[in-house]
Amino acid sequence: MAAGFGGVERDRQEKLAKKLGMTQQQLARLESGESNPTVRTIARVAHGLGRRVVMTLEKSFQENSVRQLRRSAARRARSRAR
């Protein structure tokens, strides 16, 4: 951060933190990536910002790729056996 703007940044964080129901220090750690927020904290921040949290659980790319490779290998083996 450029010298001389620390106070402005702190003021911004203090106002937003108050709106979100947390301290300026907690918000600073969230913004910097220093903390590992819970889903509850993420939802609270989203709500304070007028947003909603949408989460999906998907199979990993690697897991899908392994399955596809196994299926392809099984098909090749079946076609060779005929």
Description:
This protein has 82 residues and is mostly helical. The chain has one domain: Orthogonal Bundle (434 Repressor (Amino-terminal Domain)), CATH 1.10.260. It contains 4 helices and no strands. It has helices at 6-20, 24-32, 39-48, 61-81. The longest helix has 21 residues, at 61-81. It is rod-shaped and about 75 Å long.
Question: Summed up, what is this model?
Answer:
The chain has helices spanning 6-20, 24-32, 39-48, 61-81. It is mostly helical and 82 residues long.
Shape verdict: rod-shaped
Alpha plus pi helix count: 4
Give the total of domains.
1
- Helicity level: 55-70%
Q: SS-based structural class?
A: mainly alpha
- Rg, nearest Å: 24 Å
Question: What is the level 1 CATH name?
Answer: Mainly Alpha
Report mean pLDDT, rounded to a whole number. 85
Helix-strand pattern, N to C? HHHH
* Amino-to-carboxy terminus distance: 69 Å
Low-confidence stretches: none
**Biggest β-sheet: count, sense, barrel?**
none
Please indicate the percent range of residues in DSSP E strands (runs of 2 or more): under 5%
Q: What is the CATH architecture descriptor?
A: Orthogonal Bundle
What is the CATH fold-level name? 434 Repressor (Amino-terminal Domain)
E-strand count? 0
Task: Write the topology of this structure.
Layout lengths: L5 H15 L3 H9 L6 H10 L12 H21 L1
Helix pairs in contact: 1-2
Distinctive features:
mainly alpha; 4 helices
